[in-house]
Design brief:
Layout lengths: L1 H66 L4 H18 L2 H11 L2 H16 L15 H9 L7
Length: 151
């Protein structure tokens, strides 16, 4: 009688626990796979973006800079070329990922291209740091409370 009661109780708990545990396991698996896919798409976007900026720099910007005719108009044209190259090389999944997570793909990618170009520029000279203003009260406190070495 007790053995049968324990068996029924165990089966009841098992009947409730198995779907809950498997549902949680499926949720974790879905999140894990989603992370793998989004990481792969993010890597694709970054790689293609770097390639597009590099290609535009090599084929268009360097020639204009050498001839001294790289002005604001040429910069905008170079940005449009890099954006067109990038959009042409991205998979539809990557474009959908951008639109789902960041909004308009062209606006997002334009900002990313500009950031990539800025990262290629040499950093300007760092500004000299000014010394912190001296605080006489802090200095006198430290002098007064300075540990003296034993003689």
């Amino acid at each position: 009688m007790v053995n049968e009661f324990l068996t029924n109780a165990f089966l009841s708990v098992l009947t409730v626990a198995v779907p809950a545990v498997s549902g949680f396991g499926l949720l974790l698996l879905r999140q894990f796979l989603s992370k793998i896919i989004s990481d792969g798409l993010a890597d694709e976007i970054t790689s293609r973006l770097e390639d597009a900026v590099y290609a535009t720099t090599q084929t268009y910007v360097d020639d204009l800079k050498a001839s001294g005719s790289f002005n604001k108009e040429a910069q905008l044209h170079a940005l449009a070329l890099a954006l067109a190259t990038l959009l042409g090389s991205l998979s539809q999944e990557a474009k959908d990922y951008i639109e789902k997570n960041f909004g308009d793909a062209e606006t997002y990618l334009t900002g990313r291209i500009e950031a990539e170009v800025r990262s290629w520029r040499p950093n300007p000279r760092p500004r000299k740091r000014r010394a912190a203003p001296s605080n006489g009260a802090a200095r006198s406190f430290l002098r007064r409370n300075k540990k003296r070495k034993p003689a």
